[in-house]
Design a protein that fits this description.
3-stranded antiparallel β-sheet; 238 residues; binds adenosine-5'-triphosphate; 33% helix; globular; alpha/beta; binds magnesium ion
Length: 238
């Protein structure tokens, strides 16, 4: 059972401007997102609308638009769309005990906010300022130390900072947290993260469709490339 099992978009909005012009958002209007697996991935090409959707769902769930926990309220730049205000989330009876919204793009600002709050908060993040950790280390510290059981985690491209080994570490940690009753919603391009056991993969094109691991584009294309890089490159570059 998931904390959030469905995301609906209401009809009272101005359809002539971003984000309501995005095909994925139009699709959502007629087709609510069903989040029935403990891990749901949103994948799709650059510009497909993953961040727009993930951020709106995070905002509707009560997270700060720039990321952090549900108690973070800082803003360095208001870039979020108003989509979150138009979403209705269906919550289960079980409420998350904790949660985090991780945006690779603005995690730096979240770290600055953690440092500003100070007062022992670093203990929850591995014992020191995440500014003193590398980009990837700070993500892994966050997931290892701050994430816990029965949490709701919304992640936007966690792989942005991670090596292949780092992705495998995160995959294992996600699995552990799912076993402990957590829910993940993750926008990703990573063929490694997409392999999370029991996950639902939603691919955004002009529509939002459930796909299998093998047919998800990051997997199929990477596999194709790695199968014969030389041949792939000849086609690409000719
Ligand atoms: N504030 C904004 N105003 C207008 N258009 C925007 C705004 N933010 C994003 N867009 C446009 O909306 C589309 C979807 O953007 P979004 O960031 O959701 O894509 P994405 O799927 O997360 O892409 P990526 O894989 O590159 O992160 C893009 O074409 C983008 O240019
Ligand atoms: Mg994005």
């Amino acid at each position: 059972m998931t904390f959030i099992s469905q995301v609906r978009l209401d009809e009272r909005h101005d359809t002539r401007r971003y984000p309501f012009t995005l095909p994925a958002v139009r699709h959502l209007l007629a087709h609510p997102l069903e989040l029935t697996s403990p891990v749901t991935f949103l994948t799709g090409d650059n510009g497909a609308g993953k961040s727009t959707l993930v951020e709106a769902i995070a905002v509707a769930a009560g997270f700060n638009a720039e990321g952090g926990t549900q108690s973070f309220r800082f803003a360095t730049k208001a870039t979020e769309s108003s989509l979150g205000d138009h979403l209705t989330l269906r919550w289960g009876v079980r409420k998350p005990r904790t949660g985090f919204f991780l945006r690779a793009e603005s995690f730096y600002n979240v770290i600055t906010e953690i440092d500003r709050i100070g007062g022992g908060i670093h203990a929850s993040y591995g014992g020191r300022s995440l500014h003193e950790r590398s980009h990837g280390e700070s993500f892994i510290d966050l997931m290892t130390h701050r994430f816990g059981p029965k949490g709701l985690y919304v992640l936007d491209e966690p792989e942005a900072a991670l090596s292949v080994k780092g992705c495998l570490t995160v995959l294992r940690r996600m699995h552990e947290l799912v076993e402990a009753g957590s829910q993940f919603l993750v926008a990703t391009h990573s063929p490694i993260l997409l392999a999370a056991p029991g996950a639902t993969i939603l691919e955004i094109t002009d529509t939002i469709d459930e796909v299998s691991y093998d047919t998800a584009e990051p997997v199929a294309l990477t596999r194709n490339f790695l199968g014969e890089p030389g041949r792939f490159l000849r086609h690409l570059l000719e």
